Amino acid sequence: MKLELRGITKRFGALVANDHIDLTVEPGEIHCLLGENGAGKSTLMNVLYGLYQADDGEILLDDVVQRFSGPGDAMAAGIGMVHQHFMLIPVFTVAENVMLGHEKTRAGGRLDIAAAREQVRAISSRFGFDIDPDALVDDLPVGVQQRVEIIKALSRDAKVLVFDEPTAVLTPQETDELMVIMRQLKEAGTSIVFITHKLREVREVADRITVIRLGKVVGQASPTATNTELASLMVGRAVELTVHKDPAKPGNADLVVKNLSVIDHRGQLVVNNVSFEVHAGEILAIAGVQGNGQTELTEAIMGLQPRVTGSIMLDGNELRKASVRTVLDAGVGFVPEDRSEDGLIAEFTIAENLMLDRSNGEPFVKAGTLQLGTLAEFAEKTIVEFDIRAQGIGTHAGKLSGGNQQKVVLARELSRSLRLFVAAQPTRGLDVGSIEFVHTRIIATRDAGTPVLVVSTELDEVVALADRIAVMYRGGIVGIVPGTTPRSVLGLMMAGELPSTPEVAA
Amino acid sequence: MTTVSGNLATPSSTPASKIVLATAVVKSWKSPIALGIFALVSIVLFGVFGRDGTSSFRLSSETDFVQLPVLALPTRAAGIVLSILLVLLAAYATWLAYRARRVNLWLIVVFALIFMVGFLSWASAGHTMPVTGLLVGSVGLSVPLIFGALGGVISERVGVVNVAIEGQLLAGAFVSALVASATRQPFLGLAAAMVAGALVSSVLAAFSIKYLVDQVIVGVVLNVLVTGLTNFLYSTVLSPANETLNNPGILPRIPIPVLSGIPIIGPVLFRQTIIIYIMYVAVIAVWYGLFHTKWGLRLRSSGEHPQAADTVGINVNRTRFWNVSLAGAIAGLGGAYFTLGSIGGFSKEMTAGAGFIALAAVIFGRWDPIKATFAALLFGFATNLQSVLAIIGSPVPSEFMLMLPYIVTIVAVAGLVGQVRGPAAAGKPYVKS
Amino acid sequence: MSDSQIPTQGPVPTPGTVQGEQPAPAAEQPSRFSGVLREIASGNALISVLAVVLALVAGAVLIAVTDPGVHAASAYFFGRPLDTVNAVWTAVSGAYTALFQGSIYNFGRPTFAAGIKPFTETLTFATPLIAAGLGVALAFRVGLFNIGGRGQMLIAAAAAGWVGFSFDLPWGVHLIVALVVGIVGGALWGGIVGLLKARTGAHEVIVTIMLNYVAFYLLAYMLRTPGLLQAPGSSNPKSPAMKPTAVFPHILGPSYNLTLGFILVIIATIWVWYLLSRSSLGFKFRAIGENPHAALTAGINVKNMYVYAMLISGALVGLAGANQVQASITSGFGSGIDAGIGFDAITVALLGRSRPWGVFVAGILFGAFKAGGFTMQASQNVPIDIVLVVQSLIVLFIAAPPLVRAVFRLPAPTVTPRVAPAKISGKKAVVTK
Question: Which segments cross the bilayer (chain C) (predicted)?
Fold first, then answer.
């Protein structure tokens, strides 16, 4: 089926998320939609899928103009979508998830689960998936959940399949497998729209590439274009892919983590017997695919995990059983992974957010009373220093752009005197300008002699920042290698394979 | 109380498609401790403070085919035997916990039953406990709770927290009395009660879905509104014309042939009014519908992950609106039981918090219609036990028996039955983002 | 990275920094005057006023529909329609005039001192409403829904009452001890909820509802048990009268009922304002209320804060409870001593938008409804329950501004009406109000 978008425009208030976007996907083609976070890719696809109504423009399938008032219409027309955040109901089985919305019933209105099971099996066998139709989705690993999403779309005879950032949660190996599936689908005649911001994947699988930036199509490219060309098209200027950084001058091992394990509410060891050290003046990056225990590891260090065994020594003090307050007071700065959920209070002003983790004593609190004058003075100074663009210190944090929100978090954490800096996914979802700012600040913190622990799922970021790299896989550390380790080796380690010459740092 | 013993296995390198993390051994001591405390209470109560005499249980009523003999137990001896059984069960639970195994629900149920028999025989020392009457009364008191709980289950399963069950019951009670009296048609009264309940809950649905008002707030305010309205209208409309407008009469009991003659079960389940028979159907229909039909699948998907439901073409807000209204209709029937089923007239605030107990039953029953029904029966039993004990002269002040359902609920939500997990999206309005 | 030489086909992008801020809206600036009008029309204050108007209109409809005079006139509506109109006018204006004269100023009295007495009655009724409303509002700000006002008031009233009638203490000391014991009682009853929430994650809505009933039955038991709270020599479930030394003095002389309690709630309002807006504890409370995850990550002990918040919330509700026995009903109390204030407090807090002074004003408004409601009931035969209806409608309308706007055909607010442009370095802008 041929898909054509003509002049799609979508506005949110004053923001134009999609500005007259044209896109043509030929039958049996893998068409990549490349763009930065926030470029408007997902908005465009939600318009295509009927979740949003376009303000202007039209959608054509095989040259027939379509009117989608909801996802049901889009599906009926043959469009399927594999969402970035899986649209699966965790407490339902695979079969139930697949049948939802187009259920077959028997006498008495009874759901025909058997038919749904059969459908799951039939599609699975076509692509060589091994999926139990009666398994609860919640119990399946993410890679398998994604396949359930694919089965869901195919069970509705999707002729155009949209993959929205499908590789974000996959290991390199799983990504390769997904590429194989995509090619299989293509051979079966399905048109595929593949949305991503990862250049390597684009070049591997795409037949054609459309690049969008700030809601507009800025160009098309063929898969043989270089990374640099694609990146500059995507970002709008020549991109320096690495931040300048002098060699590290590591000092003492200030943070020593030994045999650390974290047990989650299901009793699983989400962090399993992990040991490492971070020296003063070095950046240790923790690489790995999302969901391999990195989040829980940083939370354990911060005192946010309830069941932790092992030891976390900072400057010779045990922090394992410490409360978050004690950890912060010990001089640990923390940039949480989910900025809007854990880092900021959207309804609070910038100033209030800047004092969020210092609400106990001097300088912002005296005798239990807030010192608003001191706070205002501090906030004024800080928004200049950290280049936070806002109307003023009284602006609510929720009104800021992602980059400025992250700067508020950084400003808060870095304006204390730190003994350890922990940054989890510090640039997720940020524009390139903000990424540079954050990276520069992190390196400056290192250069000031603070041990820095960075967690990132983006290999680019790991390589740009790290002096040493620890790769996590299924809760364990596969190995700790120098920052100069080639990406191919890191990729293998992220899939759990030990490098042939592991260079485990002391 | 949980203890954790260290990591067991290191990750093996199986293919990437299946991530199986090593698990830690987790021992939960909650259940053994709770059971231990109750076993101790039983030793103290039935043994140390045991009462002498004979506890008699009358099992049959006059209309049964077979007349069962009165069961007579020596109070102290029975108490001691049952206490020992309880101690053994608690010890077994401790052993299970020590071996890091889960304590089964059946064990807790058996424990609770034995404790209850022990308590009854202790309380009825020297008297005769009319078992059938006790159960019949319990079912009666449970009816509005069960209808309310069914409404609550549906509403919360579809994603709208329903604190307004009380208002729906009260509206149902008022309107059924009015309509049944005015038309002299009890069945019209039942239908009107459903409409009234649905109206109340459609306001809840509209405010929470269209205007995105916090669902608990709307629920609480609706209860006040319905209380005010029914009080006002009772004073201005019903009570000046009590004979014509508030005199619906009570629905007749319809014994089901054969079944109604079985001892205990017959009078309890099969010699009841039409409302109770409707209730049996409703419980089964809601259970079947929720878990085995298209309606239920879509309903639950709207309450668990509305966005996912939306992406497969389900209109989440419409689903929520109509099902919340349906939930209100069911709760309204429960309201009608107050007027048409048991009392035969409306009086101010006659539901007296039954809606809140129904809400408790929803949670206690973990959002499952069958379990919620049993929870409602349990609460009805506790309430009725209190009045029966008051008649035969109970050693426990009746107020403490009346408190029991509420305390049991607090203990339940505080985690004795494990972390209660409701529908994931209940309470959250669905806004397309 | 391989470097194949296939050029990109699109336009060559021009270098330039990526804008961090989203582009400012380019909407044309309306004239200053219409902007101000629009601001007023879409503002909160107007919505609140219109919500009250709308609720009063609904109340008027109820009064008219149920008025016997209107009924009589409508029987010959087609003959003399004006009679019906007149009857409606008589009923509604009579009721609302009584409401006004009973709550604000009675023009029928000769002197100002006598004419203003209704307003002092309003303040008297407002006193416990404000205190309990502050308690509920404070919990709201921490993200907790305290529906347990009733239970906290009952416990507080029992505690203060017990000190008040059973001890002989000097004037002043007795009053303070009774007050403090009452407040502590309320705080502890609220604190249980905070503790359970913090330790087990039990949902506070359920626990507070259940504790209301536990408190009710507990009090009922104590009131009928000689030696606890029951008046000696009486068989009624009622306590003895308070000793005069424990009763709040009248602050405007003996001819007005306004007592020290009103001064206490003014102090409480100021204190709550300070607590929420200017104190470190309040900062933490608000942080948790807005985003508990971020608060936790920032080292705020969320669990402890839940306990503190519920203690303080319960204490404020306890103040209302103590006021009931030390000022409102000093002749001995029964188990209905809470007089529904625990639930009214929720509507007061909602109407006051959980801001201390908002609650103060809302409390006075609802106090006026109560004071006037009794006059209306006595002189016009309109049951006071109409007040409940009007109050709950006000809250519903206020919670759904789009509904009020639709009724009055007001313009929708501009995109961000709630957040006024921040003044740079203005002290007021530093913290959220």
Answer: 45-65, 86-105, 125-144, 173-196, 205-223, 256-276, 305-323, 329-350, 357-374, 386-408
Residue A363, preceding bond cis, omega within 30 degrees?
A: yes
CB pairs under 8 A between A and B: 142
The CA-based diameter of chain B, rounded to the nearest angstrom, is 82
The angle formed by the CA atoms of residues A437, A443 and A449, to the nearest 5 degrees, is 140
Q: Please, how many CA atoms are within 13 Å of residue A231, restricted to the half-sphere of its CB? A: 16
pLDDT > 60? residue A53: yes
Per-residue pLDDT, averaged over C12-24, amounts to: 34
The rounded distance, in Å, linking the Cα atoms of B432 and B430 is 6
Give the sign of the dihedral formed by CA B303, CA B307, CA B313, CA B315: positive
For residues B393 and C193, is the Cβ–Cβ distance under 8 A? no
CB C117 within 8 A of CB C102: no
Query: What pLDDT, on the 0 to 100 scale, is given for residue C431?
Result: 55
Report DSSP state, residue C109. Answer: S
A365 lies within 8 A of chain C by CB: yes
3-state helix, strand, coil in chain B (%, to 5): 65, 5, 25
Comparing alpha-carbon positions, the chain B residue that sits nearest to C195 is B414
Q: Does A395 touch chain C (CB under 8 A)?
A: yes
pLDDT category at A176 given cuts 50, 70, 90 is: confident
C54, pLDDT greater than 90? yes
Instruction: Give the CATH number for residue A151.
Output: 3.40.50.300
Cβ contact B217–C350 (<8 Å): yes
The residues facing A396 across adjacent strands are A349
Choice among A84-93, A348-357, A484-493 with the minimum mean pLDDT: A484-493
Give the pair of three-digit tokens for residue B315: 């209109």
Over residues B357-364, the mean pLDDT reads: 87
C414 in any annotated domain: no
Q: What ipTM was reported for this prediction?
A: 0.83
Furthest-apart CA atoms within chain C: distance in Å = 105
Predicted pLDDT at B12: 36
Strand order, beta sheet including A64-66: A15-25, A3-12, A56-61, A64-66
B-proximal residues of A, 58-77, CB under 8 Å:
70-73, 75-76
Does domain B134-417 fall under CATH 1.10.3470.10? My reply is yes
Q: Is the pLDDT of residue C30 over 50?
A: no
Q: In this predicted model, what pLDDT tens digit does every residue of B73-130 receive, in sequence order? A: 888 888 888 899 999 999 998 888 888 777 777 888 898 889 888 888 888 888 888 8
Count of structural domains within chain A: 3
Same-domain pairing of A33 and A144: yes
CATH 1.10.3470.10 domain span(s) along chain B? 134-417
Contact C300, A348 (CB under 8 A): no
* C25 pLDDT above the threshold of 50: no
Estimate the crossing angle of helix A172-187 against helix A487-494, to 10 degrees: 90
* Parent domain of A106: 3-235
A476 to chain B: which residues are within 8 Å by CB?
A: 10-11
Residue A69 CA to residue A59 CA, distance in Å, equals 12
Inter-chain CB proximity A87 and B311 less than 8 Å: yes
End-to-end CA gap in chain B: 41
* pLDDT value of position C372: 93
Flag whether C20 is in a domain: no
Q: Which two tokens stand for residue B236?
A: 């201005």
Which of B207, B224, B232 has its CB closest to that of C386? B232
Name C267's Cβ contacts closer than 8 Å, sequence gap at least 6: none
Chains that touch B (3 or more CB pairs under 8 A): A, C
Residue C153 sits at the chain B interface (C-beta within 8 Å): no
- Predicted confidence band of residue B2 (pLDDT cuts 50, 70, 90): very low
* Mean pLDDT across A199-224: 85
The first and second tokens of residue C318, run together, are: 């306890």
Non-local CB neighbours of C110 within 8 Å, separated by 6+ positions:
none
Tokens in use for B69? 């003999």
